[in-house]
Design brief:
Elements lengths: L6 E2 L9 E2 L10 E12 L6 E7 L2 E6 L6 E6 L6 E4 L6 E7 L2 E6 L4 E6 L5 E6 L7 E4 L4 E5 L4 E5 L6 E6 L1 E2 L2 E2 L3 E7 L2 E6 L4 E6 L5 E6 L6 H5 L4 E6 L5 E6 L4 E9 L3
Parallel strand pairs: 3-21
Antiparallel strand pairs: 1-2, 3-24, 4-5, 5-6, 6-7, 8-9, 9-10, 10-11, 12-13, 13-14, 14-15, 16-17, 18-19, 19-20, 20-21, 22-23, 23-24
Length: about 260
């Protein structure tokens, strides 16, 4: 989800298709794909909502009422710590900020602050609207949150208060269904719900600079028993990412590369 003004005029009795998508001077995003480096096991019963790597530890948040958890452990190994989110809460995105983990809930309007070591709950904070994805921008020291719309909300990592918002556009048009997020410097990577696309977004402007095609990671047989792509975690100190999906039996170490490279 990125030219003089041009209007497509109806011809030969055909319908008026309206303005050219690129007619407002917007630049189309680059087309990228994924290059698989390594394949690792993933819990096929994990309804993945949040995914983040800190050092050598993978933190994962899962969803569904009665099945929502936060877990941590070695990358590719079994979790060493798991905590459950009690009913009726439905877990969503997570992010780690120093000694705390923030966990969103879908339609409950509650963010749960946890201890990053034990995953024990510290407190709950209310917010308006839905919670989908969450990540932390270290340099700006702010959280970035998605809610399924085309808007990303910036929040204070201490008290979860709103600091601002940015509308996300792809080729000049709003792009919604932004889901699980990963912050890397000034860039936010976002899964697009019900698709195999990951967007590379400039946090300052909301402009999508690259659309990453992550299709074909699972075999047709594996995909038949899985849900959507949803999980991006940058591997610190590398150009690689860990990606997975809801109920996926595998996760993949990948590079994001321009198509045709």
């Amino acid at each position: 989800m990125l030219a003089a003004a041009t209007v497509v005029v109806a011809c030969a009795g055909g319908p008026d298709r309206g303005p050219d998508p690129a007619s407002d001077g917007a630049v189309a995003p680059e087309e990228w794909t994924v290059e698989v480096v390594e394949v690792l096991p993933h819990d096929p019963e994990a309804f993945t909502q949040g995914f983040e790597v800190v050092g050598d530890t993978l933190y994962e948040g899962t969803g569904l009422v009665g099945e929502s958890t936060v877990r941590k452990g070695p990358i590719g190994g079994e979790p060493t710590v798991t905590t459950e989110l009690p009913e009726p809460l439905f877990g969503e995105g997570i992010t780690v900020v120093g000694s705390r983990v923030w966990q969103l809930t879908w339609q409950d309007g509650v963010a749960v602050e946890r201890d990053s070591d034990t995953l024990a709950e510290r407190r709950r904070v209310r917010y308006d609207g839905e919670g989908w994805g969450l990540c932390h921008q270290e340099r700006a020291d702010r959280l970035v949150m998605s809610d399924g719309t085309d808007v990303l909300t910036f929040r204070d990592p201490g008290d979860f208060s709103v600091l601002g918002t940015v509308a996300v556009t792809e080729g000049g048009r709003p792009v919604s269904d932004l889901n699980e997020l990963e912050c890397v410097g000034e860039i936010v990577y976002a899964n697009v719900w019900r698709s195999d696309r990951i967007l590379r977004i400039e946090a300052a402007t909301g402009i999508v600079t690259a659309s990453i095609d992550a299709s074909g990671l699972l075999s047709p047989e594996e995909a038949a028993g899985a849900d959507v792509l949803n999980g991006i975690a940058a591997l610190p100190g590398t150009d690689r990412f860990l990606v997975t999906g809801k109920l996926w039996p595998k996760m993949f170490v990948v590079r994001f590369v321009p198509r045709g490279r």
